[in-house]
Here is the input.
Amino acid sequence: MKQKILVIEDEQDIQTLLEYNLQQAGYEVVVCENGEDGLWLAIEHKPDLILLDWMLPLLSGIEVLRQLRNRTDTREIPVMMLTARGEEGDRLRGLDGGADDYVTKPFSPAELIARVRAILRRHSRGYDAKLTGGDIELDLQTKRVLRGGISIHLGPTEFKLLEHFMRNQGRVYSRDQLLDSVWGDNVYVEMRTVDVHIRRLRKAINSTGGPDVIRTVRSMGYAFDAKA
Ligand code: CA
Here is the structure.
């Protein structure tokens, strides 16, 4: 079955360029040219990935992203933002809003496809899949974690945290974002609860004596980095 990509882009020539190249790369492509349709199509089609322009009629890209991330049925869909702007502030705003990647126009189609593939690889989730990072292996079916072949016991929250990190390796998450992704919107937990669970996860996962794979990024948050 082909993976489905939703392209939300109002510039006709870029939309055509994306559609053509993604189809050539073997993806099923759904296109639309404004934010409102884009949001609706995302909910309707549950695409494997969304390419989302920043400046869009009716609903801006950042607003579409916000709404996607607020819905439980769309929050896990990876989003790559497209923009003509190259300013760092926008980039950070996009990533902070939960975008998985960011491409500045004009872009090379080959590079864009490579990045699409990379995101889809990170997000592909068969139910019997295993996630690996460095010498760590997380089995989603048996809920077991191995490090260097040694079994590691994790509580349910630490398991979910590690799963989230391993699906998005290298990416820095703020406490807020971790609360949203791991605990969900409807649960009230204090920020420092995140630190407590990170500490437990770190202790357990590093108990075999391997290098620390949880990176603390000062005043930003945490990331999983197995490539020390
Ligand atoms: Ca645009």
